Amino acid sequence: MSQNVDALATAWRDLWDGQLHLAERIIHPDFLSHAAPLTGGAPGHSHGRDGLNSWISAIHAVFQDLRFQIEVGPIADGEFLVVRWKGEGTYRGGIPGSSPKAVGRRVFFTGTDTLRVTDGQLIEYWANADSLYFIQQLGMEKVPPLD
Fold first, then answer.
1. What is the distance between the alpha carbons of residues 53 and 51, in angstroms, rounded to a whole number?
2. Which CATH number characterizes residue 91's domain?
3. Which of 48, 93, 114, 137 has the smallest set of CB atoms within 10 Å of its CB?
4. Which domain holds residue 24?
5. What Cα–Cα distance (Å) separates residue 134 from each residue in 19, 38, 95, 131?
6. By three-state DSSP, how is residue 102 classified?
7. pLDDT at 42
8. Strands 106-118, 27-34: parallel, antiparallel or unpaired by DSSP?
9. What is the mean pLDDT of the chain?
């Protein structure tokens, strides 16, 4: 990878921290993500910068003061960049099936992002997050079914 891996990983983290203006610089126009939603349902995909920014905005709508920290990496291998992260925020409510008592609770979750880089920008993303631990913290009594 010809670009600075650390800078790209840091900008990726900052984008998820809510600095959506960074998408223009680090996200390729043909960006595609692959992720299983944290609260059940079929695997989702977002396309382009706007799709990613909408996804990030939706998560921030549910968690105030949401912040991410890179715990491992970045690890670069050819055109791929991998980071292990931890997210933390205060739950505002709004996820179906969550306990009303969870509102105001600090929630922690972890995951690993595998990113493909082209022309110095992120073009493809595979997300892997600890969904079970996440929904347990929200007081969900059963795992939502796949649609």
1. 5
2. 3.10.450.50
3. 93
4. 5-137
5. 23, 7, 11, 5
6. helix
7. 43
8. unpaired
9. 88
User: Considering the domain boundaries, does residue 81 fall inside one?
Assistant: yes
Query: Which burial class, exposed, middle or buried, applies to 144 when counting CB atoms under 10 A from its CB (0-12, 13-18, 19+)?
Result: middle
Q: Which of 125, 121, 99, 101 is nearest to 111 (CA)?
A: 125
CB 25 within 8 A of CB 119: no
The answer to the question of residue 147 being in a domain is no
Edge-to-edge strands of the sheet including 27-34?
27-34, 121-129, 106-118, 80-91, 63-77
Domain total of the chain: 1
DSSP string, 1-64: --S-HHHHHHHHHHHHTT-GGGHHHHEEEEEEEEB--TTSSS-B--BHHHHHHHHHHHHHHHEE
pLDDT tops 70 at residue 147: no
pLDDT interval class at 95 (50, 70, 90): confident
Instruction: Convert the pLDDT of each residue in 16-70 to its tens digit.
Output: 999 999 999 999 999 999 886 554 444 456 788 999 999 899 889 999 999 999 9
